Amino acid sequence: MNLYHPVNIGSLSLPGNLFLAPVAGYTGRAYRSLCIDEGADFSFTELISAESVIRGRPDMKPMDDPSPVSVLLRRADNEKHYAIQLFGAESERMAAGAALLARWKPAVVDINGGCPVPKVIKTGAGSALMKNPDNLGRVVEAMVRASQEHLGGVPVTIKIRSGWDNGSINYRECARIAVESGAAMVSLHPRTRAQGYGGKSDWSLIADLASRLPVPVTGSGDLYTPEDAERMLRETGCAAVMFARGAMGNPFIFSTTRAFLTTGSYTPPGAAARIAIGFRHLERLAADIGEKPACLEMRKHFCAYTKGSKGTQGTAGGAGLRNKLVHAASIEDYRLLLHDIS
Ligand SMILES: Cc1cc2nc3c(=O)[nH]c(=O)nc-3n(C[C@H](O)[C@H](O)[C@H](O)COP(=O)(O)O)c2cc1C
């Protein structure tokens, strides 16, 4: 079977199965738009607190609202479909947050059941949702109801880990309860909360879940190259893959993976193309949040765009260049540092 194929998430039909994962601090509107340009079939906002949505500015039009939560929630201009990912622990608060999403018109509302960050789990949200599968089910059920009442019934989905730690691997139970409660897709990052982002993700758990669930399973974990994506799709039978760290500094991962899946070969982007798309990123981010904050935020992104590039401007190599990039504060600084990379 062709490994690149359409995916249906409930009532939503997507043309393909290459998704951009939610990555806090990286997958903002500007970056998502570059991934869409490069062929991402679906994209997620980073995790956004349901409480911050509730405290937001429902009186304002999205584009006139400069509050940080509104900036996080906005769809990119070229983003035909996107998912807004919410986090929270309490079903009625999550439903109240979801009910307020109508003005952003998400195609999907996704629930974060995987975040390992202490600030999030101490509230019972993120991966801590998996410690109490019954509550996780109530959250899904309440969100589905909120979607039916306020969002035209868009699908509700959930992203989980394999479990809290090695002693409590309960992705099967959490996924089953989520689907019984109305989830239309489950994304699985098969590491435990205790593993954080270290070690290797266990793709055999993705295969296990994909063989059990009546809804699409999206696989996440250690996807850095088109070959990785091909192998995950082939070995696990998951419906879709989502790129996370492998997409940082490399929006081309979508076009190259699609080429690889459909033709068997691809041309990796050169250093100059990566720098050029980095400047497009900077331009779009500056249009959203202003030039100065955009230049500061782009430091980490340009470090990603130049990973593997030789140094320039008399710097010793890639690391030397990145030491300079983390001090750049203007578009001119970036131009001077990056003009002769090829
Ligand atoms: C810095 C960082 C931020 C992340 N933020 C989110 C998030 O907001 N929501 C989420 O569901 N997963 C988040 N993730 C998890 C990724 O979506 C993905 O599941 C994980 O990184 C495994 O994929 P990878 O090994 O290919 O990077 C984050 C991961 C990283 C490294």
| Proportion of residues in extended strands | 5-15%
User: Portion of residues in helices?
Assistant: 40-55%
Number of helices: 14
What is the H/E string? EEEHEHHEHEHHEHEHEHEHHHHH
**Total DSSP E strands:** 10
Describe the global form: globular
Average pLDDT taken over every residue:
94
Distance between the termini: 38 Å
Largest beta sheet: what is the strand line-up?
Answer: 3-4-5-6-7-8-9-10
Helix/sheet category: alpha/beta
Bound molecules: flavin mononucleotide
Radius of gyration in whole Å, from Cα?
20 Å
For the biggest sheet, the summary is: 8 strands, parallel, barrel
Low-confidence stretches: 312-316
Topology:
Blueprint: E1 7-9, E2 12-14, E3 18-20, H1 29-37, E4 42-49, H2 50-54, H3 68-73, E5 83-87, H4 91-99, E6 108-113, H5 118-121, H6 133-150, E7 156-163, H7 171-180, E8 186-192, H8 203-212, E9 217-220, H9 226-236, E10 240-243, H10 253-263, H11 271-289, H12 291-305, H13 318-325, H14 331-338
Parallel strand pairs: 3-4, 3-10, 4-5, 5-6, 6-7, 7-8, 8-9, 9-10
Antiparallel strand pairs: 1-2
This protein binds flavin mononucleotide (FMN).
